[in-house]
Design goal:
The protein has three helices and five strands. With 140 residues, it is of the alpha+beta class. The protein has a single domain, classed as Thiol Ester Dehydrase, Chain A (Roll). The longest helix is centred in the N-terminal third of the chain and has 19 residues, at 18-36.
Length: 140
């Protein structure tokens, strides 16, 4: 997903505010869910975040174009891991990387729920379990 840095994204230090990076992490996760999940699953499942980890590597500035990449990771019964990278489009520089843990909830009850085999297959890396926090110096 391509993102343009807007004037409202800039903080007092002259670069993109940390909260904006978090918004971008959430925006690409939602876009991926809407693009990949079928309509029935989108109607019955909602997702809440139970954990965000973000490593900030370089500052983004006004005028930068950002490329956001996301992929799914490990899963347990009700926790799904998602990885995101935010890169500067002009040079591919890694600006930030995130690991987010999401929990599926039932759209009617608002309670955590298990997902179908199809959702599990499409939104988790097979055979993995969610492990310790991501090491800031390496990709997991």
């Amino acid at each position: 997903m391509r993102i343009a840095v807007e004037p409202a994204d800039i903080d007092a230090l002259g670069h993109v505010n940390n909260v904006v990076y978090l918004r971008w992490v959430q925006d690409i996760a939602i876009a991926h869910w809407k693009a990949a999940a079928n309509a029935a699953d989108q109607e019955k499942l909602l997702w809440i975040v139970v954990r965000h980890e973000i490593d900030y590597k370089q500052a983004a500035r006004l005028g930068d174009a950002i490329v956001a990449r996301t992929w799914v990771g490990a899963a347990t019964r009700i926790k799904f891991e998602r990885h995101t990278e935010l890169l500067r489009a002009s040079d591919g520089c890694l600006l930030a990387k995130a690991r987010t843990v999401w929990c599926p909830i039932d759209a009617v009850t608002g309670k955590p729920t298990s997902v179908s085999a199809e959702v599990r297959a499409g939104f988790s890396a097979a055979g993995e379990e969610i492990g310790p926090p991501m090491n800031a110096d390496k990709r997991r």
